[in-house]
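# nightly structure sweep
# worker-07 picked up a monomer target from the shared queue
# config: single-sequence mode, recycle default, output format = structure tokens
# input follows
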Amino acid sequence: MTRNIATLLLGSVIGFSASANDLKIGFVDMQKAIQEVSAGKKAKKELEDEFNKKKKDLEKREADIKKMGEDFEKRSMAMNEEARMKKQAELQGEMRKYQELAGKSQMEIQKRERDLTQPIVTKLRSIIEEIAKKENYTVILEKSENAVMFAKKEIDLTERIIKEHDKK
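# output follows
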């Protein structure tokens, strides 16, 4: 009885009715696959290099602003009101530029990550589709924290997808 209800529910969710014996389900951990295929490792290295360069530039800029702030603190008492206000506005302007640059750098890295991973994802999806059609899978799910709460290791296709990707 429970099996029939589960079959009916799954069948209606998937859009067909079949017996549980006809179902063939697998899953793939796409994050793991993206990170472990050779192209993914290369993309990760490239991203890390770009990130570290941007981080180094931002840290230098931050240190320069900090030094400007310290110099301002030391000299502010000797400045007249107009000079102090001008210097403070200059310092605030530099801080805004720094924050804008940091935000822009983060967006650039995220865009670069999408650009580098999109071809990998496309190829992985193609491989998954080939396996699904060839081996008559009913559904292949993507494993994520909330999507697949439990699954037998035997239906995990991740390692197989990684190997197939690197063969092509």
